[in-house]
């Protein structure tokens, strides 16, 4: 097996260590890690932030082993308790009976973790709509799943979305408060009557505004089903591509909604961790 072998001399993290040993760019080295070409003391390691201790051996394989290649999913962070990903638009978080055979983020990650441990599992903490891209966190054990789900509203410090909407948004920032209900066919709508409804609150600011489209930064105070889509449509700025809530066209070929930032208290370390998924290239305002 063709490989390079390095000996660790002091405690460090894997990615910084490799950057000092491999005379290539950062993206190349990250690719080597993602493809499973790095072994630490003979065990495959893909986490950028894996801790290395003095006297450990790091092998870098010349060619990638035959491993499951993630599709529609980019791993932003991984440790013993969590995997945080950037999900592409059009990919389900998890299958329902209706979409039982379709590729999902859950199945992609399950195959990924079982490359190293056939008994490993992944647990759903929260979801994004199929047509929404961006940051999602999955748990790697039941304890972490329940710790996050039980205290979700307390541990989450920031949930930021990018919304690519129709029309020129004149008000540079604002707060939208609504009461939401759901029809028997599961369509969410705004109602003036609070009885039997759920309160929804979001805050937005304009990043860029053009004559036809605007790009908004949206922070959620509540997390209701389809909240952003419904509330922005209510102020006559439906999300691009969202025909269900009044969009007139879809020039970008996808829904203009992206979960850009998720920050929360790590259930094990109790430290604040923050993850960001880059703005989709289709979200352009002229």
Question: Would you write up a description of this structure?
Answer:
With about 290 residues, the protein is α+β, with helices and mostly antiparallel strands. It folds into 3 domains: about 60 residues, Structural Genomics Hypothetical 15.5 Kd Protein In mrcA-pckA Intergenic Region, Chain A (Roll), CATH 3.10.290.10; about 80 residues, Pseudouridine synthase (2-Layer Sandwich), CATH 3.30.2350; about 100 residues, Pseudouridine synthase. Helices cover about 15% and strands about 35% of the residues. It is built from 6 helices and 17 strands. The strands form 3 sheets. Strands 7, 8, 9, 10, 11, 12, 13, 14, 15, 16 and 17 form an 11-stranded mixed sheet that branches. A 4-stranded antiparallel sheet has the order 1-6-3-4, with no helix packed on it. A hairpin with a 6-residue loop joins β16 and β17. The longest helix is centred in the N-terminal third of the chain and has 9 residues.
């Amino acid at each position: 097996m063709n490989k390079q072998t390095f000996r660790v001399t002091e405690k460090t993290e894997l990615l910084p260590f490799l950057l000092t040993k491999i005379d290539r760019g950062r993206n190349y080295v990250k690719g080597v890690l993602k493809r499973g070409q790095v072994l630490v003391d003979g065990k495959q390691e893909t986490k950028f932030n894996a801790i290395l201790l003095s006297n450990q051996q790091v092998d870098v394989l010349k060619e990638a082993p035959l491993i499951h290649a993630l599709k529609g999913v980019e791993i932003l962070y991984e440790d013993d308790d969590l995997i945080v990903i950037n999900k592409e638009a059009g990919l389900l978080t998890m299958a329902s009976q209706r979409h039982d055979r379709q590729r999902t983020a859950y199945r992609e990650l399950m195959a990924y973790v079982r490359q190293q441990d056939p008994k490993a599992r992944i647990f759903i903490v929260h979801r994004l709509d199929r047509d929404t891209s961006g940051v999602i966190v999955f748990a790697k054990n039941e304890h972490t799943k329940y710790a996050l789900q039980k205290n979700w509203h307390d541990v989450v410090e920031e949930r930021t979305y990018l919304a690519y909407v129709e029309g020129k948004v004149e008000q540079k920032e604002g707060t939208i408060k609504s009461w939401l209900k759901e029809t028997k066919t599961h369509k969410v709508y705004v109602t003036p009557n609070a009885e039997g409804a759920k309160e929804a609150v979001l805050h937005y600011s304009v990043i860029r505004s053009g004559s036809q489209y605007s790009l908004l930064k949206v922070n959620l105070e509540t997390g209701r089903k389809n909240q952003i889509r419904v509330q922005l449509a209510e102020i006559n700025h439906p999300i691009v591509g969202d025909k269900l809530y009044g969009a007139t066209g879809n020039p970008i070929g996808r829904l203009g909604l992206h979960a850009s930032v998720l920050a929360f208290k790590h259930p094990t370390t109790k430290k604040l961790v923050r993850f960001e998924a880059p703005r989709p290239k289709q979200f352009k305002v002229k």
